[in-house]
Design a protein that fits this description.
Layout lengths: L1 H17 L5 H9 L8 H12 L5 H22 L11 H13 L11 H21 L1
Helix pairs in contact: 1-2, 4-6, 5-6
Amino acid sequence: MNEVQSKVYRVYEDFKKEEKPLTSQMVKARYLGEDRRHFSFQNLIDYHNEKRQHKLHKNTMGQNKTSQRYMTELFSEEFKVSDIPLAKLDYSFVIGFENFLRSHVPKSGQPKIGNNAAMKHIKRLRRMVTLAYRME
C-alpha cells in the first residue's frame, strides 16, 4: 500500500515540476502508464518514409527501404513477430542485426552482404533510432 501511495505522490510531484494543470484522471493515466503513446518500429519506418521522402533522393530512399526490409526480415526470422515496440530496441538488437546481415543468404544472383554494406545498414538503423529518440 505504501509503495502505491509513494508512486502516486511521485507522479503528483512530476506534474508539479512540469507546471501543468492537474486532474485526478491525469494522475491515474500517468500512474498506469496510459498517458504516453507506445510506438512500434513499423510506426517509425512509416514516419521516416513519409517525412523524409521529399528531402532525400529517390535512390537514397530505395537504399533506406532495403535496410528497412532487412530489419523486418530480422523480426520475422529471429523474433517470430512482424513488429516490435521501440522500447525493446537495445544494444543486443543492434548486435543481432549485424549478425543477421553478415549471415544473410541473399536471393540467387545477388552478392552476399559485405562489411561496408552491413555497416551502412547499421548506420541507417542508427539514424532512424536517433529520429525516434528526438521525437520523444
